[in-house]
Design a protein that fits this description.
Keywords (chain A): DNA damage, DNA repair, Nucleus
Main location (chain A): nucleus
Distance between the termini of chain A: 63 Å
Radius of gyration of chain B: 24 Å
GO cellular component, one term (chain A): checkpoint clamp complex
Distance between the termini of chain B: 47 Å
Number of helices of chain A: 7
Strand order of the largest sheet of chain B: 10-6-2-3-4-19-18-17-11-15
Shape of chain A: elongated
Shape of chain B: elongated
Subcellular location (chain A): Nucleus
Strand order of the largest sheet of chain A: 10-6-2-3-4-19-18-17-11-15
Structural class of chain B: alpha+beta
Oligomer: heterodimer
Helix content of chain B: 25-40%
Strand content of chain B: 15-25%
InterPro entries (chain A): Cell_cycle_checkpoint_Rad1, DNA_clamp_sf, Rad1_Rec1_Rad17
Helix content of chain A: 10-25%
Strand content of chain A: 35-45%
Structural class of chain A: alpha+beta
Largest sheet of chain B: 10 strands, antiparallel
Largest sheet of chain A: 10 strands, antiparallel
Chain lengths: ~280, ~550
């Protein structure tokens, strides 16, 4: 074990101790829920693993699930622990040895002593140890989007590859992204309405990149593009994506992220539709 | 207009957009019978770029007004539009992705919704549609003629890239200097009081480095590096040799590329009209000017020009289509390689009275400046009562003066208000003001100089040379052995206004035959002018300076 300098009796004072041989497996997933201007993330720790939640404008919520299997050692003494932490700082600490993809990967030990105590990180690479202590904050209540599978109207699972271009080329002068899902043509369409005109990307349902196409009703909703912007990060590191909308027009995007060791993590975004939709549809 | 770009060509097309985007902010699209033209001009109108994609570039190319039922009486022939470069770049943002994913791209005009549509058919059945708003516009056309240029060099783009990469990225302009023996590129340094503070770099190339090397006259041209870099980035990626056509200081330089009859790219860059004192000897030009005075009845000097830059930017204010039509009428012929011209391309046309009234307007403050400049020239009256000065500087004796880049697109102003026009028309009954500047082969000049010095004739109407110089000039000893390169700098009169009328080109032809090239700064010369030209030619004296006084009354 690379962190052999740590004595096990020291660990007894922590309610959560998680060790990973590759800190990047953790940091890559956390990056997918990192919003540029929303730095605070709520961390729920349970015996299943960590769930990190970031919210913006009470309209979008991103959840990253790092299941306990990602860690080589994962010990939690209480049923659950919840705290809030600055995600920007956490990510900076996790990538303190750089993000290069060279063979050497830093090992991580993460410890949390309970309410009011800081989150301790120990990173080690090539015998160099970094000791980080990040202050935790009072957890805030997170939104419940009440998005349940029973209300899902349309669902498409596709390889991320084809959405990557589409999302990267989105016209950011547009205020909204319109997502149309339909059992009939054009099946799945992303539209923007920017200064220079409109742009659409159409994806046929029989494309070899579409794995599952379960659309029952034509539905077209608009979502604020600024809110969806952080999803591009998740999309870029993902291999597959599931797009779902429910009867209220709420959007759920689930990204499957495969890490360097071949393990799979999930990142999920919920987004509320743009309420001005009806007015804007007039043009 | 409807065309389909095959996947194999989409990258070239995208790259041309990227190249254009480095030059101008708007993209002018014009479908022509012989291909699709994409053009742009930079904000100071000193650089113009045009890509012409031949029909064979496309899978299919239809240039027609096929779904044009209602509307558009103005569009008598074809459709032209302008879109912002930014919007077009969103379509062709990533060349890599384009190349990898796009199978074909359809471009068409949706006249019903007034959108220019780019339909990208990508792999996996994905279809991306970009509906871009456009503005209808007149044709953008620089008026230039590369075929008349005495200097023609064909270079491998790699060689030019090597040259350009030798200069700092902060360098704004470079000077190209050619002689039959060698080519040099050096950085252009603007007025810097302390010469020790400036880095001067110069790079010499031998003519053998070039695929073709024809240098008719020694020339030194200074142009913008930024645009050249954009041009080269395309040439490099396309792997096309580039041909340079240029003439002399102040005349535009043309970069052209051609690819197997599918693609033609032409870039016209304005060159600085005056050489910096630090680089070419001021001394020389001053002395040359005085020398010139002695012979001013034979070769009339106007180192015209530059500077219309500030005026040019107002050009949008004058897009009165009928006015443009008028102009078109008057300009029945076009110089080679010029297709349609719209008002923005036209030189100030002095051959027509209405035209005159229009072009008298531009930059009246400019003219004031010029008037002011001439006020302190003692010889102003010598030009005779009916000839106030042409609104163009002569910088022969003012080498240190601030430098400006000439615009490629001379300004033509909005039509004057009606009452203005009325007065102007009456004024225009007087002879039009026209200036002919003239280029003569040095050897020819030499003759004249000597001849003139013998007879001691000084033309009464030289307006370009300072009186001080004039007095000196009589003592000036012309040295026959002066290297041509030096003399050329003096006798080259350049025009920022390209575009010859038929008459002028005729006289040009004759002029060329007689080994003297006449250039008019206002190429739209009237018949009257060309007649005078011919007469002038016969009598080997070219001074036409007639004018109305209206700018004085402004």
């Amino acid at each position: 074990m690379t962190l052999s300098t740590q004595q096990s009796e020291e660990d007894s004072q922590f309610i959560l101790v998680a060790k990973a041989d590759n800190a990047r497996n953790v940091s890559n997933v956390l990056k997918a829920v990192h919003f540029k201007d929303k730095e605070l993330a709520t961390v729920f720790a349970s015996e299943n693993g960590l769930k990190v939640t970031v919210e913006d404008s009470k309209s979008v919520q991103a959840n990253a699930f790092i299941q306990s299997g990602i860690f080589q050692e994962y010990v939690i003494k209480e049923q659950s622990a919840t705290f809030m932490v600055n995600l920007t700082i956490l990510l900076e600490c996790l990538t303190i040895f750089g993000t290069g993809t060279s063979g050497v990967t830093p090992a991580l030990k993460m410890c949390y002593g309970g309410y009011g105590t800081p989150l301790l990180l120990l990173l080690e690479e090539n015998g160099v140890v970094t000791d980080c202590s990040i202050k935790t904050l009072e957890p805030e209540e997170t939104l419940d989007f009440n998005f349940c599978g029973a209300n899902v109207i349309n669902k498409i699972i596709m390889k991320s590859e084809c959405l990557k271009d589409a999302f990267q080329e989105l016209d950011m002068t547009s205020e909204v992204l319109e997502i149309l899902m339909s059992p009939d043509k054009p099946y799945f369409r992303l539209s923007t309405f920017g200064n220079a005109g409109s742009a659409h990307s159409d994806f046929p349902k029989d494309s070899d990149l579409v794995e599952s196409f379960q659309c029952t009703k034509t539905q077209s909703n608009r979502y604020k593009l600024v809110l969806l912007k952080p999803t591009v990060k998740a999309l870029m590191s993902s291999t597959k994506v599931s797009i779902r909308t429910d009867n209220r027009g709420f959007l759920s995007l689930q990204y499957m992220i495969r890490n360097e060791d071949g393990q799979i993590c999930f990142v999920e975004y919920y987004c509320a539709p743009d309420e001005e939709q009806d007015e804007e549809n007039d043009d | 207009m409807k065309c389909m770009i095959p996947g194999s060509n989409i990258k070239v097309f995208g790259r041309s957009i990227h190249c254009l985007s480095k030059i101008g902010e708007d993209l002018y699209i014009e479908p022509l019978d012989h291909g699709l033209a994409l053009r742009t001009v930079n904000s100071s109108r000193s650089a113009y770029a045009c890509f012409l994609f031949a029909p064979s570039f496309f899978l299919s190319y239809i240039n027609g007004t096929y779904n044009q039922q209602e509307t558009n009486q103005e569009e008598e022939d074809s459709f032209r539009c302008r879109i912002t470069m930014k919007s077009c770049l969103t379509v062709f943002k990533s060349l890599y992705t384009l190349e990898k994913t796009v199978d074909k791209c359809q471009v068409y005009i949706d006249l019903k919704d007034c959108r220019l549509v780019f339909l990208l058919h990508c792999k996996h059945g994905i279809v991306k549609t970009h509906n871009l708003t456009y503005q209808e516009t007149e044709t953008l056309q620089a008026v230039f003629s590369k075929d008349l240029c005495p200097n023609h060099i064909v270079a491998n783009s790699k060689a030019l890239i090597d040259v350009v990469s030798g200069f700092q990225t902060s360098q704004e302009e470079i000077t190209l200097n050619v002689t039959p023996q060698q080519v040099s590129f050096k950085n252009y340094v603007e007025d810097e009081p302390d010469p020790n503070k400036v880095v001067h770099s110069e790079m010499f190339l031998s003519p053998s480095e070039f695929d073709d090397y024809t240098v008719g006259i020694d020339a030194e041209v200074t142009f913008c590096l930024k645009e050249l870099r954009a041009v080269l980035s395309f040439a490099d990626a396309a792997g096309l040799p580039m041909s340079l056509h240029f003439e002399s200081t102040g005349k535009p330089i043309v970069f052209a590329m051609e690819s197997e009859q599918t693609l033609e790219a032409t870039f016209v860059l304005a060159t600085l009209a005056d050489l910096p004192s630090s680089q070419s000897s001021t001394q020389h030009r001053v002395s040359a000017a005085s020398q010139h005075t002695a012979v001013n009845h034979t070769s009339h000097t106007h180192s015209l020009t530059k500077q219309r830059k500030q005026a040019v930017n107002n050009s949008s204010s004058r897009s009165h289509s009928n006015q443009a039509d008028d102009r078109r009428e008057f300009r029945k012929t076009k110089p080679p390689n010029t297709k349609r011209q719209n008002e923005m391309d036209f030189p100030d046309d002095l051959n027509n009275q209405r035209e005159t009234s229009h072009c008298r307007q531009p930059g009246s403050d400019r003219m004031k400046d010029i008037d002011a400049e001439f006020e302190h020239q003692d010889r102003v009256q010598a030009r005779g009562p009916s000839s106030p000065v042409i609104p163009l500087h002569s910088h022969v004796h003012r080498a240190s003066e601030h430098q400006t880049r000439p615009a490629l697109f001379p300004e033509i102003k909005a039509a004057p208000k009606d009452n203005d026009r009325a007065t102007q028309i009456t004024q225009c009954v007087q002879p039009n003001r026209t200036v002919l500047a003239r280029y003569e082969e040095p050897c020819d000049e030499e003759h004249r100089v000597n001849a003139k010095q013998q007879t001691g004739v000084v033309a009464p109407d030289d307006q370009c040379v300072d009186s001080a110089n004039v007095s000196d000039s009589e003592d000036y000893d012309f040295v026959p052995g002066t290297p041509p390169s030096k003399r050329v700098g003096v006798y080259m009169f350049k025009s920022m206004f390209f575009g010859a009328s038929q008459q002028l080109s005729q006289s040009l032809e004759t002029a060329q035959k007689s080994s003297a090239v006449f250039k008019s700064m206002f190429f739209g010369a009237s018949q009257q002018l060309s007649q005078s030209l011919e007469t002038a030619q016969k009598s080997s004296a070219v001074v036409l300076c007639e004018d109305t006084d209206e700018e004085d009354s402004d």
